[in-house]
Amino acid sequence: MAIAAGTLAEALGARAVGHVRAAGDGDAVAGVRPTVTVEPTTEEEVAAVLVFADAERLKVLIRGGGTQSGLGHPPTGGDILLSTRGLDRLVEHEPGDMTATAEAGMTLADFQAALGRAGQWLALDPALPSATTIGGIVATAVSGPRRLRYGGVRDQIIGVRIARADGTLAKGGGKVVKNVAGFDLPKLLTGSLGTLGVIVSATFRLYPQALSSRTVIIRGVEAGPLCDLAVQLNATTLVPSAIDVVGGAGDGPCALAVRFEGSRAAAEEQTEQVRALAAPLGGVDNVFTDNDEADYWREAAGPALPGASESTVRLKVSLLPATIRPWLATLRDRAARLAVSGAWRAHAGHGLVDLRLTGEAAALRAIVADLRAAAVVQGGNLVVTDAPPGILAVVDAWGAVPALAIMRRVKEQFDPHGTLNPGRFVGGI
């Protein structure tokens, strides 16, 4: 039902649901501008928003830090934008158990700073930690280069608390690492893009901060030999935290970055082994430590940053590590043929590739189709993580999903009226 902004804001304000205001252009989600924006500060306020919205059959869009706002299809409706940024507290940290719970709107940077005082950290390193929120990390399953060693969100989340579409507060998992009781709600919510419930807090297992870290850089003219070396490194007894190959969509120099963390002696020893393996390619170019290393990885996140223009798309491709080289060859061939430029970062240790491509709209549509087909042939998939509305109107952001029928039934159970982030997920869920 359509409700004027003033009327809707007044109705929500009467329910004491947090700060409410009329939505502006900056609140639009994939071109859809909501009527009002509300920022609850407690989980009870979140629940009150949803009780009202579900009863009135209003559509609720959910936003954390907005760093992944381009992910998914444009919503099919949006009356209320619910921001989780008011839920920004550290709920609990148990250093002895190596677990911690944070509210959904707490930024990753603030969470890491709090954990760091006890010499611990959440082993996830997505781009923009100062804006990325805990709830957004769970909802989008975003991780980072060090997923190779520590795993992704599903491997580290052990508990979650949500407000369901009808306002019911529910929880799953617990506060200890060894927790096998009940339905695995934390993993179900991971990557669900806010379509099953509003995450209000999450609990994670933690890791000790590394005593030493260093990143080995090997440069090459072509990506192929560097990808082969990455596969070779995967097969050794070395324990890198990240193995990334970086380059452009066309011809040009590429680089392989290998990160080691742990004791100083172990990091140095493994670095020397990489020097020997890299000798046939011309040897190691640089070894970064301390601030230089931190700057390298921060700048390296560039291709994965959000904010597609009218001539830019951003993609995430999932491949087997051994198939990255032939897939990149397809990228180079199609980019040259269609006059598309851009940059890519292949997490060659675990098989995810982030890339940003720029070109004419018709060329971008064509190259997305070609690259998705090449990924599927290799047993992988491709997701459009950011694109202008004109491209999303004709290109499926998610591609084919074999489990779509099951996912639809889960959505119907959790959100029968289609209240939460309608249409954004796979198959228009």
The mean pLDDT is 93
**Order of strands, widest sheet:** 15-12-14-13-17-18-16-19
Q: Give the strand tally.
A: 19
Structural class: alpha+beta
The first-to-last residue Cα distance is: 20 Å
- If classified by CATH, what would the architecture of the largest domain be? 2-Layer Sandwich
Cα-atom radius of gyration: 22 Å
Number of discrete domains: 4
Describe the structure in brief.
β8 (157-163) and β9 (169-173) form a beta hairpin. The protein has helices at 5-13, 43-56, 108-116, 134-140, 147-150, 153-156, 185-189, 223-234, 264-278, 290-300, 324-338, 361-377, 389-392, 404-414; strands at 19-22, 36-39, 60-63, 80-83, 90-94, 99-103, 120-121, 157-163, 169-173, 198-205, 207-208, 212-220, 242-248, 254-262, 286-288, 312-318, 341-347, 352-358, 381-386.
Describe the structure.
The chain is of the alpha+beta class and 429 residues long. It folds into four domains: 5-85, Uridine Diphospho-n-acetylenolpyruvylglucosamine Reductase, domain 2; 90-208, Uridine Diphospho-n-acetylenolpyruvylglucosamine Reductase, domain 3; 212-296, Alpha-Beta Plaits (2-Layer Sandwich); 303-392, Alpha-Beta Plaits (2-Layer Sandwich). It is built from 14 helices and 19 strands. The protein has helices at residues 5-13, 43-56, 108-116, 134-140, 147-150, 153-156, 185-189, 223-234, 264-278, 290-300, 324-338, 361-377, 389-392, 404-414, and strands spanning 19-22, 36-39, 60-63, 80-83, 90-94, 99-103, 120-121, 157-163, 169-173, 198-205, 207-208, 212-220, 242-248, 254-262, 286-288, 312-318, 341-347, 352-358, 381-386. The protein has an eight-stranded antiparallel β-sheet. A five-stranded antiparallel β-sheet has the order 5-6-10-8-9. Strands 1-2-4-3 form a four-stranded mixed β-sheet, with helices on one face. Strand 13 and strand 14 (254-262) form a beta hairpin. Helix 8 (223-234) runs antiparallel to helix 11 (324-338) and helix 11 packs antiparallel against helix 12 (361-377). The longest helix is centred in the C-terminal third of the chain and has 17 residues, at 361-377. 48% of the residues are buried. Residues 303-307 have low confidence and may be disordered.
